[in-house]
Amino acid sequence: MIKGSIPALVTPFSDGQVDLETLKKLVDWHVDQGSHGIVPVGTTGESPTLSHAEHDRVVAEVIAAADGRIPVIAGAGSNNTAETVRLVKAAKEAGADAALVVTPYYNKPTQKGLIAHYTAAADCGLPIIIYNIPGRSVVDMTPATMGELARHPNIVGVKDATGDLARVPRQRITCGTDFIQLSGEDPTALGFNAHGGTGCISVTANVAPKLCSEMQEATLAGDFANALRITDRLMPLHIAIFEEPGLVGAKYGMSLLGLCDAEVRSPLAPLEDSTKAHIRDGMVHAGLLN
How many domains does the chain divide into? Predict the structure, then answer.
């Protein structure tokens, strides 16, 4: 069931506090717009600046709001294995369908260390999606390591944000063709699926969920001509959102649609005016604004 367009959900704030009412409305909106799943408290959910209590509350509220209508993949990553295990267990207790676990950042574990870390997370009994993003975490999980981890019955897929489309077929060799491969990079999501992927955990889908869902559905149906037409509509927005940290761009785009406030927590900062203009232009190009 984990496939298609899966928004990496923002965490809305109001006067510095998590805005739970808006959070619930966003989940309903994504369901109505055709999103195929949702990821609370990943990087786009500002997990680095949420307290542990806020993290757990957001996961629980999103699961309750989704009410089984779409899968919830709870962010549960840390560079501390014990903390990761706690987060996975809390997600499981709350009723998440899976957990997204990032490769440990800053402390730069070896491949052997990655195997131990993910095995501990998977032994909690919840399906695990590996999040491989060497640009943020510095460490890169090799296809060989991923293949070894894929033997664990609870390690079911990867969110691959390497931007290397050749990883998809290489991981099909080491992990098997049933291993779930989700893109973690919006601009290359079409090519990712053409190489054997089955979806995208998307930042842009916070702003354009219907278009992102339609693009994913087209690729999964083998209609790459239509998928390309939709990608042409979305590409200026993809580029603009990531001129500065993507979640800041996504929140600003959502604010233009009246969905939530653009507020982010420090050390993130409001967008430069030039970036705001590019995001607005990208939304106009995509047909989201007049």
Answer: 1
